[in-house]
């Protein structure tokens, strides 16, 4: 669907351009996080291969690989989530929305994006509070190499905050909404 | 509140949120944050945060991005053509041969890819146009693709197995992965038999002019040799697990390495290929894992309010025949997955199903494999199913309605296969018991 | 608000209800409290299906639950003073008389939790359960061994690599070979059905192990003195009961495991003789790493009464 038709469908006019620079910064941060996420996945693969080799060829498993990998998993998932939001490919059951007439469909999509943005923002806030608690009381992980837990948990509020902003931006500017849902 | 009201309310709200089109992860978040506020107030937020943290730092789930990455690299490294050409030669002269090529290709690809969507899209783009232009029946072509793609989550490696296995206690993920092998081959054979029967009964389903060339034994051997690198990948993944050398996550990492080596052998390797694969893999993983992480607390909340215990007592008190119970447990996903996402369903169902399985003394390996196949069927039951949509996305000149029509025979065949596995449990449990 | 006389308390447990460490202590404690209060104070149970074992300290601290039944190593990231008790001799009466329990209680109260009881699951604590027999020195060379942080220094000293994981995951990990063994108490392997998947229990046994029952401090303060005393009394009595009760259970379990496919494999005496020292020093090392002076003071206290190394 073309951008114009999308706007028409949403029953909206083109948005005030003063938000455009804000969106550009948001998209830049999102895309940067996405690349970091891809690099971290590369690191995870490398660490595992190294671990297998060390364990089976040199009989010397490391103490830190496993733990590091699980920390990396948190970062890689949460840093990629905002880009998925930007592309609007988070899984949704959209048969109902698709049945609606164009005008209502646009409205509904805006409302759904707004709702998703708000709940993600709420989750960012909740998990940020928790990360602050972990920081204040200096709580360590229960893993072999104990590190402050907030080092890892901080990616959760960061990821959800960016996801929230992306969905809010979709709600504010329907031209940013792509329509193909990617599927698992 | 009585447990059954709590359960009904929780499930109702959640399903309603999903049905109106809220992203699945957001629906779970709304239900969970709402649930926490309702039953324990803001002091329960720590519990909520922890449930996300636990999921995204769980070693089991590292397998997911790695399996996806492996598939991405293989898909981008020309493996489709190599495999397709080799299998084409092996099949040789045969009436309706492209149907069988699709089935063979999807069976082999299922051992390389963990997701039905990826295989459906790949077949829809690569083989479907050929089939259409050569005069193969559209409906039967779509059928073989839908059926073939559905083997991917059943034959290891499988993303669904990782998610199921990590949520179910005391079942070995390695065992659960391997348990899918025989069922996968069984399903593949059933699909093949159906095609044979259809083509026998109705000759115009297969173009008479398109019977292919007969290749010599030497050519066949050469073609087979050309596919050896895939053997490396399969060995790196399943071989290392079976030999007990690596955990599923480690095996997935070595599978990625194997896939990269394959790309090198086929001279497709480039940094761009790896980079694109990495980007794609983290995106898909984030999409799946955000749902898993957001849903984690849901089961805990049901347990907290006593809904799980209530349901167990209730089901335990029923004097239903175990076979009847099995049918009920299998019908629920079959019907619900017509309309909802199978990941969402499994995340909902596992905490409720698990204690019932224990009460009835079902063999967990057997039951969860049936459950896995059932969810796979859910992905091809109209109107909502990812495999259906993936094929629609890849096959431009086919309508969704046509795809729906070809899906039903596939559904029926898988249900028959499911019945066979239910009656002959050793088809499922024999291989994992060798581990 | 005025102190409450009757209370319905909600207890969160790190163990499932049928697991021996809970089964032989939890219900008995609940029963005692109920009896002593004439039925005014009741306790309900919530298991690890509602909150994962390693994540339970915070929700009780936050007041979502009133009581916590756990092993202190399961919250070692928050404080390690509790787990240090596993390096202190099991003598329930002496532990209280010389102020060990009081000291730990004070420490936890600063973190919003009240220590109600610290029952030991027997006079002796642990052993290693292994997939393969011991051969040579160091005995755990190249093996990955499941253990909470308390064991980590000892496992490393024996040449192994420690890996922490919740109870519920150990069976699968042993089966798959994700770990080559597990450090565990002298009861529980039977309930966990380890005899189905591994064959070896290693001698010698070492250390001591106990569970702890904590209460959210606000919930505690809301109770009237009579109810508080009832809980403390029940806590003290269960400590004394548990020791002898578990000594018997340990012997029964050893016999049962031996009759059901498990055999003993022994560490070389050069290592085995060092077990008590390795264990105690390891535990104190871990405790001091997280909790610094608070742990060191506890060690001094216990040492001055000859209850630890
Ligand atoms: Na597969
Ligand atoms: Na469906």
UniProtKB/TrEMBL annotation, chain A:
Pfam families: DctQ. It is a multi-pass membrane protein. One of its GO terms (biological process) is C4-dicarboxylate transport. It is found in: Cell inner membrane. The chain crosses the membrane at residues 32-58, 110-128, 150-172. Residues 44-171 form the Tripartite ATP-independent periplasmic transporters DctQ component domain. Keywords: Cell inner membrane, Cell membrane, Membrane, Transmembrane, Transmembrane helix, Transport. Its main location: membrane. GO terms for molecular function: transmembrane transporter activity. The keyword Cell membrane applies. GO terms for cellular component: plasma membrane. Part of the tripartite ATP-independent periplasmic (TRAP) transport system. Belongs to the TRAP transporter small permease family. The complex comprises the extracytoplasmic solute receptor protein and the two transmembrane proteins. This is TRAP transporter small permease protein. The lineage of its organism: Bacteria, Pseudomonadati, Pseudomonadota, Alphaproteobacteria, Rhodospirillales.
From TrEMBL, chain B:
One of its GO terms (cellular component) is plasma membrane. It is a multi-pass membrane protein. The keyword Cell membrane applies. Keywords: Cell inner membrane, Cell membrane, Membrane, Transmembrane, Transmembrane helix, Transport. Pfam families: DctM (PF06808). The chain crosses the membrane at residues 6-39, 98-123, 143-167, 173-196, 222-245, 251-269, 281-303, 323-353, 365-386, 406-431. It comes from the Bacteria. It is found in: Cell inner membrane. Residues 11-426 form the TRAP C4-dicarboxylate transport system permease DctM subunit domain. InterPro entries: DctM, TRAP_DctM. GO terms for molecular function: transmembrane transporter activity. Its main location: membrane. Part of the tripartite ATP-independent periplasmic (TRAP) transport system. This is TRAP transporter large permease subunit. It comes from Pacificispira spongiicola.
